[in-house]
Amino acid sequence: MKGNACFLEELMQLIKMGKLTELHHRLRPEVAILSGDLEIYGREVAARWLREQPPVTVRGNPRVQMLSGQLMLQQGQVLCEEKTLRYLLVIDVLLDQLVHLTLVEEPAVNKNRSLEKSRSAPLEQLLMQTRKFWLEWDIRQDTLQVSENWFAHFHFQPSLVGQVQDLPDSHRRSPSAAQIAEIRSQLQRGNLVPTVDLSLECGKEGIRWYRLELTLEKDAQGEPVRVLGLLSDMDQQRRELQWLRHLAHQDCLTGLYNRFKIQQLIEEALRQAPVGKSMTLAVMDIDNFKQINDAYGHDCGDETLRRTAAEIRALFAPEDLVGRIGGDEFVVLLQEAGTRDQVGARLDHIRQQLQHLRQAPAALPKISCSIGCAFFPAQGTTYRQLFLKADAAMYQAKRQGKNSCVFY
Q1: CB 386 within 8 A of CB 374
Q2: Is the dihedral of CA 134, 138, 142, 148 positive or negative?
Q3: I need a surface site. Which of 44, 90, 234, 365 has the fewest CB within 10 A?
Q4: Alpha helices, DSSP H only, in 208-288?
């Protein structure tokens, strides 16, 4: 990538130039695309979908944010067939590959609504279109005014600015009545208060998040006289942030923890383990997976990985930590390990259960896997120490005929 160049524009340029092989390599195998009601997973189908899209024109440089040492977020707008679309990209900057793309149409602004002739009409019209609401609290008179769009949206009478303790329980979500009372008290004493995030019930739309920004006005003697507030709908931004945090920890193809998060969780579990507790780190690799990709294509291979990952997660205990660390390789921390024989019996059962997993197409060979294990704390006390030994044991299982479990 070059500077703040839009990654989506780079992909479209490759399509325009007919460089389809390079396009393929710029997509992660587990790439995910969301557009309206459409959900696409996997490199082959994503590349095909991108090739079928009409040309887009990027508007300005994207906003860039690093999600982790490897993942970058890009956000911006593109013009496509006279429609403005908002894009959100997650990019693996080390591999220069697309991980995720969300593409949604920006809501159109209604330009035909007639405006009232009052001086506040332009502001009211703007607020109606942008889901923003103004409030004005006269502290001395203890009266509150709100913008006209308030009642159409919330269907309840507000109390004092930011004071929602008088609302019905069905409307009150966050912050608590005590917190709001403290904010009111601070304002009356003339102190500035930070921005407040609120979650409110909005009829059929359910609970949505809003941000309340407050400005305090004082008279010539420095006494507080008025508070101006702007309540802005931030529900989508908040949900996107939550989703991005989840995405930064999740393997896009399988839904398991990704390489970075599973290592972090295992390291934390090892550090917090009480004295005398034993655990097992297992590295699992699907046998002959490359042959499935070569014979049936990457889409079939991706589906095999998804189904196998779901089965692996279901076969291990809820407290066991399971992640995909790349390709067809998984790592698991068995937190209630038991004896060596118990661990061996448990992993052999899991290995045998995977062989009964139904595959589509039916001609696919049965799934088998090679497993390598290392024991905490006898064979290591850190993730790296245990992983290197478990990985070596897994390759020993491969060398001695695959479809087996080997202890370091």
Answers
A1: yes
A2: negative
A3: 365
A4: 235-249, 259-272
Share of the chain above pLDDT 90, in %: 31
Q: Is the four-CA dihedral 395, 399, 400, 404 of positive or negative sign? A: positive
Beta strand 132-138 with 224-233: parallel, antiparallel or unpaired? antiparallel
What DSSP designation does 107 have?
Answer: P
Give the architecture-level CATH label for domain 7-105. Roll (3.10)
Domain boundaries, the chain: 7-105, 121-237, 250-407
CATH T-level topology, domain 121-237: Beta-Lactamase (3.30.450)
Given a cut of 70, the residues of the chain with pLDDT beneath it are 1-4, 106-131, 152, 155-177, 203, 358-363
Annotated active-site residue in 328, 341, 348, 391: 328
Residue type present at position 329: E
The per-residue pLDDT for range 191-235, each reduced to its tens digit, is: 877 788 887 777 677 778 888 888 888 888 888 888 888 888 888
Per CATH, which fold does 250-407 belong to? Alpha-Beta Plaits (3.30.70)
Interatomic CA distance for residues 104 and 82, integer angstroms: 14
Instruction: Please give the structure tokens belonging to residue 66.
Output: 């690093």
